[in-house]
């Protein structure tokens, strides 16, 4: 997949201390070799920081402000919602075939990834995002057990069946599936050990994406924020039923 | 908004006994005066029924099968994910302005509606979709209370600020916001009575959409499935904290 990125600078706005949903966008920029600024990770003194992000979210009442990060700014255009951002960027970055069917189907899969990501988040925050994990831990244990037994195999089995003999989809969705596997292995190492035994296509895809030159360079760089317990994929051993 | 629907028949696949996520697609077809078949609501003897839907979801291993309903079939193309379906249909049905910025921003808002819809669902199923409501009722009461106090006002306040002086967005998102208000009033009548006092734009939008001729005819027809406790928006008085 060659880069077709134009001479454009993209501003990415996302929380600076987590991979989270922003990581799907970071991976697309990295794979394409695009020039992008991860604004909230820059010092406030140079126009960066979380405040710069929140200012754009408050907006001035005239333009469409995003409901939540991540969002990107391209010229005057501000675009929010992770899957929407990727759909907008992908043809510009050479990360999807240009015909409508390819774009519609890649987006459909990305939205399915996004649904799974939301369910992963809800395993550690089943009652409310605004409550501490410790205040919903009992519910989280119950929720994660059912998620790992029913939902995760259903989702991953679906993606496995789609991969086909090349074990790649040939779009930015490959990057998203890589990130998904990376996050799931971090959060649920015991359960994933068991589940991935029947997912040779996804495991192969993961290995292939991880060794692509730009992705490998990115993963080894300080630009890749380590997984942690503030992000989407959190490792709480009591949720990893194995 | 005039209909620009082509001489195409659209097949919609969705659960036949609920409004659910399929209702956002039904409303778009109805507003556009499009010719569509709600396949799973037809008798199995004439190629309808839930089995016809599940058959397409199993697929033959070659095409992209959808992960979940709703999905539509247009010619040979099968398209899943509610917001993706609407994004595909809207330019064809005259339900969005054709320029890229309008389409990207309408989709961004539709994805935000979809996020809210998922949170509404999780108020009655916080632990797991596969468990009965009765087996997670205590958690649901706790979850719904925080949802109605924090999340719902945040989402609806966001949409309210976007509506502007015309109190319409001028795209299929108006239909989605109408459906959202309808569902929320059904599920949480006491809470909505209080919350909507500060949402004159959304209330006005609701009234205007409800009286559009094609929408009014649809709502009065047997095609509009009544809200019920199998769908997304469920009325459980104990969750309606007021």
List keywords for this structure.
homodimer, 242 residues, alpha+beta, 52% helix
Content of β-strand of chain A = 5-15%
As residue ranges, the low-confidence spans of chain A are 1-5
User: What structural class results from the helix and strand content of chain A?
Assistant: alpha+beta
- Most residues in contact: chain pair: A-B, 40 and 40 residues
Q: Could you give the order of the helices and strands of chain A? A: EHEHEEHHHHHHH
Determine the oligomeric state from the structure: homodimer
User: Any idea what the shape of chain A is?
Assistant: globular
Largest sheet of chain A: 4 strands, mixed
Radius of gyration of chain A: 18 Å
Give the number of helices of chain A. 9
Largest beta sheet: strand ordering of chain A: 2-1-3-4
How does this structure look, described?
Two copies of one chain form a homodimer. Chain A is α+β, with helices and mostly antiparallel strands. In chain A, 52% of the residues lie in helices and 7% in strands. Chain A has nine helices and four strands; from the N terminus they run βαβαββααααααα. Chain A has helices at 22-32, 50-58, 82-93, 100-124, 137-163, 172-187, 189-195, 200-210, 213-219, and strands at residues 9-13, 35-38, 71-74, 77-80. In chain A, strands 2-1-3-4 form a four-stranded mixed β-sheet, covered by helices on one side. In chain A, helix 1 (22-32) runs parallel beside helix 3 (82-93), helix 4 (100-124) packs antiparallel against helix 5 (137-163) and helix 6 packs across helix 8 (200-210). The longest helix of chain A has 27 residues, at 137-163. At the A-B interface, strand 4, helix 3, helix 4 and helix 5 of A face strand 4, helix 3, helix 4 and helix 5 of B.
């Amino acid at each position: 997949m060659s880069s077709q990125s134009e001479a454009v600078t993209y501003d990415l706005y996302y929380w600076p201390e987590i991979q989270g949903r922003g990581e799907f966008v970071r991976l697309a920029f990295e794979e394409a070799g695009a020039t992008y600024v991860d604004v909230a990770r820059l010092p406030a003194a140079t126009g960066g920081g979380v405040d710069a992000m929140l200012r754009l979210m408050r907006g001035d009442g005239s333009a469409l402000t995003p409901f939540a990060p991540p969002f990107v700014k391209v010229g005057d255009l501000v675009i929010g919602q992770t899957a929407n951002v990727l759909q907008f960027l992908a043809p510009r970055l050479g990360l999807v075939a240009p015909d409508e069917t390819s774009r519609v189907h890649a987006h459909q899969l990305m939205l399915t990834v996004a649904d799974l990501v939301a369910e992963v988040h809800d395993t550690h925050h089943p009652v409310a995002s605004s409550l501490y994990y410790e205040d919903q831990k009992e519910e989280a244990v119950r929720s994660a057990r059912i998620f790992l037994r029913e939902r995760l195999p259903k989702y991953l089995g679906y993606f496995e069946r789609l991969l086909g003999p090349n074990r790649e989809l040939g779009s930015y969705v490959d990057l998203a599936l890589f990130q998904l596997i990376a996050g799931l292995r971090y959060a649920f190492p015991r359960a994933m050990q068991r589940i991935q035994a029947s997912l040779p296509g996804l495991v192969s895809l993961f290995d292939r994406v991880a060794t692509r030159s730009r992705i490998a360079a990115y993963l080894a760089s300080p630009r890749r924020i380590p997984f942690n317990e503030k992000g989407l994929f959190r490792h709480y051993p009591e949720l990893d039923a194995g």
